[in-house]
Amino acid sequence: MTEIFSYTAYRQLSQMFLSIIFFHSSEYILALAVHGKSNVNLKSLLISPSYLAAMLFSLLEYLIEIVLFPRMKEYWWISNLGLAMVIVGEIIRKAAIITAGYSFTHLIRTNREENHRLITHGIYRFIRHPAYCGFFIWSVGTQIMLCNPISTIGFAVVVWRFFAQRIPYEEYFLRQFFGSSYDEYARGVPSGVPFVK
Predict the structure, then answer these.
(1) pLDDT tens, 54-110?
(2) Which residue ranges run through the membrane (predicted)?
(3) H or E element: which one contains 101?
(4) Which of 10, 42, 66, 143 could bond 152 through an S-S bridge, CB–CB 3.0 to 4.6 Å?
C-alpha cells in the first residue's frame, strides 16, 4: 500500500492532474477570450458524465495497478512518452483554437453565422481537424503517462470512435456552408484522426 505514496505515484498523478486542470481551464479561458462571457457557459469546460467516468476509471486502474503491480508503473520512457504526447496534443489543439478564432466552437454549428469562415491557414494547412487530432493525442497520452494499459486502449478506441462519428456529421454542415471550397480543402488535407477520411 505504500506504493500509493511513492515518488512514482506522486510524479505520475501530479502530472495527470496538472494536465487535466491546464487543459480544461485553458479551454475555458480561450472560449471567453474569443466568444465573450455572454456566449460561454460551463459546457465550455468540456466535462461530461462520460468523461468523468472515463477519468475515474483510469484513476481506479492506476491505483489498483500501482498496489498490485508497482513495477509496471516504473517504465519511465513510457511515462515520458505519454507526457510528451500530452504536451504535443495541447499545442496542436490550442493552435487550432487560436488560429480559427471566432470560427472555432465546442459545439457543431448547424447554421452558418455571418462571421463563420473556412479556415485553411496555419495548422489547418496540414490538419483538417487539428482540435480533434490534438485531443486524441492528449487523451491517449494521459493514459500512457500513467502506464495504464487498459485505459490507453479504452481511451484510444472510445475517442477515435467519437471522432469517427463526429467528423462526417460536422463536415456535412461544412459542405453546406462552404460548398466546393470545402470539398477541395478536404481532398487535400487529412482529418488528423487516424483512419478517418
Answers:
(1) 999 999 999 999 999 999 999 999 999 999 999 999 999 999 999 999 898 888 888
(2) 16-34, 46-69, 75-92, 135-163
(3) none
(4) 143
